[in-house]
Design brief:
By secondary structure, this protein is mainly alpha-helical. The chain contains three helices and no strands. Helix 2 packs across helix 3. The relative contact order is 0.24.
């Protein structure tokens, strides 16, 4: 577990990518016609998940984790 704290940015980015692929698969599998934009394969969404989901969580673990 120490490596997660030491390499917080790397594992945070990987976590953001994993969240994107999980959410994309889940939402596209059960999507309705109201949300066609979510299922487009667009690299911008991956970058958004890295910087807005993964990195904040990873850096919070570095700061507050023991």
């Amino acid at each position: 577990m120490r490596i997660l704290v030491e390499q917080a940015a790397l594992f945070g980015a990987l976590y953001g990518i994993a969240v994107y692929f999980f959410m994309n698969e889940l939402l596209c599998r059960f999507r309705r016609d109201e949300v066609p934009l979510l299922c487009e394969d667009d690299g911008d969404w991956v970058v958004i998940h890295i910087f807005c989901v993964g990195l904040p969580i990873g850096l919070s673990i570095r700061r507050f984790g023991n």
